[in-house]
Amino acid sequence: MRKVFLYLYPIKEFSSVFTFSDESLYEQEGIPKPFPILNEAIDKRYREKGYEIYYALYPDKKMYGIEKKDTDKIISTDISFSEASAIDENGNRKENFEPKYPNEMYLLNQIGDIDELVVGGYHALDCVKKVAEVAYQIGIDTLVDLDLTDLFFNLYKKKDYFCIDKYSPERYKENAINRFGRGSLGIEERLFEKNYSSQVYGFNKEEKKNERSI
After folding, report:
1. SS3 assignment, position 62
2. Are the beta carbons of 132 and 174 closer than 8 angstroms?
3. Could you tell me the residue ranges of all domains in the chain?
4. Does domain 3-201 have CATH number 3.40.630?
5. pTM: predicted TM-score of the whole model, two decimal places
6. Residue 117 has what DSSP assignment?
7. Is 6 exposed, middle or buried (0-12, 13-18, 19+ CB in 10 A)?
8. Backbone phi, then psi, for 108, in 5-degree steps?
9. Mean pLDDT, consecutive 10-residue segments, the chain of 214 residues?
10. 136 within 8 A of 161, measured Cβ to Cβ
11. Facing residues of 120 across strands?
12. Which residues neighbour 110 within 8 Å (Cβ) at sequence distance 6 or greater?
């Protein structure tokens, strides 16, 4: 059985939105630095449990924040970051810009035949979802690890939630719905169903395992 963890687009342009530009601020604020924890989670959840690790990169960008092991593999998108980004090389917003996404099958074909796929990276409700849904539609047992998407940069700080060695969709759902207390449960439940209705998020008990203790 061939299992793969695929992390999408670990580049500075994406991660810098969620991280301090001055690393000394982490110590000043008493917050752990995110990337050592992210790398350890990938190791404990997937690499140590028999998953092949793949990273997808734009051909004109370098990996950022990730410790690539010798056994890990890098695959490339069919478009450049400059084609995908709404911001030009001078930092200005492009006029009449229309979003352009990497071809999902182009990425999956570089991985080859697999039985199980877990997807993380940037962004949980956009590119990660798109790639995962295509994999699911062609018959691959697919799950998005929401802990290891862009949501990670908030979730890893929650000591009573974040588990370094496993991901549980049910645990994620409970945390997401109850984050503002019981007074807002109805609103949060409706918002959750709207955002996470896709099968690839693993919240449909009939279709997906409730927990991946890999």
Report:
1. coil
2. no
3. 3-201
4. no
5. 0.91
6. E
7. buried
8. -65, -35
9. 98 96 95 98 98 98 97 98 89 89 98 98 97 98 98 96 97 87 71 94 62 43
10. no
11. 7
12. 75, 76
